Amino acid sequence: MSKILITSGPTREYLDPVRYLTNGSSGRMGAALAEAVLQQGMLPVIVSGPTAVAYPPDADVHWIETTEQMLERSLQLFTDCVGVIGAAAPCDFRPTAFSSQKITKPNDGGISFQFTNTPDILAALGKIKRSDQWSVAFALETGSGEAKALEKMRRKHCDFVVLNAPESIGRDEASFQIFDAMGERRIVFVGSKRVLAEKLLRLVCSP
Amino acid sequence: MSKILITSGPTREYLDPVRYLTNGSSGRMGAALAEAVLQQGMLPVIVSGPTAVAYPPDADVHWIETTEQMLERSLQLFTDCVGVIGAAAPCDFRPTAFSSQKITKPNDGGISFQFTNTPDILAALGKIKRSDQWSVAFALETGSGEAKALEKMRRKHCDFVVLNAPESIGRDEASFQIFDAMGERRIVFVGSKRVLAEKLLRLVCSP
C-alpha cells in the first residue's frame, strides 16, 4: 500500500519547563488530508505536534513536540513514502537557551530572549527526495503572499505549494490557491479543508 | 445562589498574527473545581483561556485569550462572587511589540524579542477584595517552592495557596500542598485534581 507522509499541527519550543512558543495550528488540515489519502486506498503516515484533533483511526500517527523532533521522525519515515505534504505549522524560532528552572518574573518588568531558527523540515526532505517522490508545501502568509509562497516552494524543492491566510488557522473553512513548480496557479478554492484535501491529492497523484 | 470565580487554563501572548507564547495548562484543575462548586450547590463562574477541556454545562464560562483580557473580565465578575480561585496559568510575559505582519524568518538565524510583565490578576483582585470575600492562589514552582508559594500568597493578599509542580501540567494526577495565610501547611495530598478540588472547597468554605 502506498504511503503518504503528512506533517501536521503546531510544534512547541520551550523557554523553560512551563513556557513555550507555539501557534494555533489545529491539525485539522492534516486530519482532512489523512482522510482523503485513506479514501484513495493509500496509507497516511502522520507526524504530528500536540493537538486535540481526531486523526482517522487507520492512520499511522507519530506524536512529537518540537520542530527538531518533527524533522528527525520525518527523515526516518520519508524514505518509504511516495510523497510528503507539509501541512504542519512548525515554530520557525526556538529559544537559544533553555532554562531547566522556571524563569522568575523580573521585578523591573522587562526581559529579553534570544531566538534562533529551527531546522526547515521540507527543505531537509527536499534534499533527500528521489525523482519518484514529490513534496507539497503550505504557505501561510499575511498580505497577498504569492511571491513569498513561490519562493518558499523553490527554496524547499517542492512540486506544489498551497497558499492560505492566517485566518484559516484553527478554522474549518478557508480560501486556498495551489501553484505548481512552474509557478502556474492550478487551483483557486474557497471551502472546507476536507474538499481542499481531495482536490490537492487528485492534483498531486495524477500522472 | 453563591458564585465562585475560577480562572482557568493558559493565556496566549502574541508576537504576530500566528505565533504566541503560552504554556501547557489544560484547564482540568478549573474543570474539577467547577464540578466541586456545583456539587456544593454553588455556581462556578469561569474565566478561561483557550483549552479543549470540557467544563460542566451548568458553569458560567467566559472565554478569553490574553492575560489582559482575563484580568478585565475577572475584575468585572469578582464583585458578585464570594471568592476567587486562581487556577489559571496566565503567561507572565508578553511581547513588548506586536507585529501585525507575520515576522519573517531571519536569514542569519538569530532574532531577539523583548518581553514585559503581564498584569497580575490575583494581585489586582486582592486589592479590591472585600472582607467578606476570599481568594486562593495556585503556585507552580520547580524545586521545593514552599518559600516562593508563601511569598506569592502574601504579595497577592490571598487566604490560601496551593503549591504543585510543573509535572502536574496537563495531567490528571498530581501532588499538592495547601498553606493558609499564616503559612501553616493545612493539606498534603497526592491524587486526582477532582479530589483536590473537593478538599480545597471544604477548607475554603468552612467557617
Q: Which residues of chain A form runs of ≥5 with pLDDT under 50?
A: none
Helix-strand topology string of chain A: EEEHEEHEEEHEHEEEH
C-alpha geometry of chain A: globular
Strand order of the largest sheet of chain A: 5-4-1-6-9-10-11-12
Greatest interface and its participating residue counts: A-B, 35 and 35 residues
Mean pLDDT of chain A: 92
* Percentage of residues in helical conformation of chain A: 25-40%
Sheet/helix structural class of chain A: alpha/beta
Descriptive account of the structure:
The structure is a homodimer of 207-residue chains. The first copy, chain A, has helices at 28-39, 67-78, 121-128, 146-155, 193-205; strands at 3-8, 13-14, 19-23, 43-48, 60-63, 83-86, 93-95, 110-117, 134-140, 160-164, 173-180, 185-192. With 207 residues, the first copy, chain A, is of the alpha/beta class. In chain A, strand 9 (134-140), helix 4 (146-155) and strand 10 (160-164) form a beta-alpha-beta unit. In chain A, helix 1 packs across helix 5. The longest helix of chain A has 13 residues, at 193-205. Chain A is globular and about 60 Å long. Chains A and B meet through strand 3 and strand 8 of A and strand 3 and strand 8 of B.
